[in-house]
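Sequence and structure are no longer studied apart. As an example, we show below a sequence and the tokens encoding its fold:
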Amino acid sequence: MAFKALSHFSLLTSSFQFSYPPTGPKIRLKSPFHVSELLFKVSLSMDLLSTSSPFYQSGETDYSRRFSTVPHASSAVDSSQRHVVITGGNAGIGKATAMELARQGMAVTIACRNKEKGDEAAAEIVRNTNNPSIRVMICDLASLTSVRQFAKEYLDQGLPLNSLVNNAGVMACPQQYTEDGFEYQLGVNHLGHFLLTALLLDRLKTSATPGLKSRVVVLSSAAECIGNLDFNDLNFKGPRAYERWLAYGQSKLANCLFSHELSRRCVSFGIPVTSNCMHPGVVDTQLIRYVFPQGISSNKPALFPGIRSTIIKLLGLKTPEEGASTAVFLASAPEMEGVTGGYYEDSRRKSPSARAVDSRLAYELWRVSEELTGATEALEPLQLSVLASNVLS
């Protein structure tokens, strides 16, 4: 089946052509790919090569041991050191981001589901950067209880927070729901991060200094352009039929709108926190690997030698370090000081879809997200809850 599938792809000098079904018309895609073309090819590869694939490894759900520092890491708070929290900082883009920010001297807190994997990543970062200020704390974005517990324990540590990188996510998974009943991609990619940001916003505010604002970086995707928000059926429990890529697009559109609205509200109320979102490109990480069958994952023996490398070349995937470069830029670059409300790709400001910057849509998503996550108590003291809507409308 794999060889038959690959025979439908023909690598050309400046474009790709394939037919689906095999007897159908040739489709020619020019490089660079538009997101819809890319998603079609990824989905096609999966459908042709396998009938099922893993998509999100289960993490530790025992919240009794949530905070750790790797061996030789300092647990003392250095008031002169800038601090960053990175969700999903144990793998892929998140780990590459953590590695580079640690190399720059920042104190890094890796927020992830699996403590063992987090500790392994932290130890690697310490070895490679000689920066001992790497912490691991458990945060399962599919559980609002876990998000609240993480935020409480972080705040109780007395740590400052200068940058928050909302990196973790899932992509194109089968239909399922979070612990709180949310469609999984919307729950993990958007709602979990919405609550996390709300709970940490006051610390971000108080950690800012004159001439040095705190920063929120939201990883979105060019897939936001295929997203659509149906506020009557956000969780695909009503009339909308679940389609994994459209659900992913919805969550990525929500990321853009959240970043846009957070920026707008912080500017309106003089809160020294910037917010920017980004498209990292299509990156060779666990996120994309879980769309492929197990046999062509990089961490498993290939069932058919050469298949994975062929598909990687076909899709033009970036390395995690390349994908992380924009996140690092937004979280730490001096030239981004005070810059807010943008959408970035390859460390350059770009224009997302019109829906991604629709202020009315962004406001409505904020209102619904605040209600669904119960974030009002954290937002109200900062005048950022929907209770301040009359000022912003």
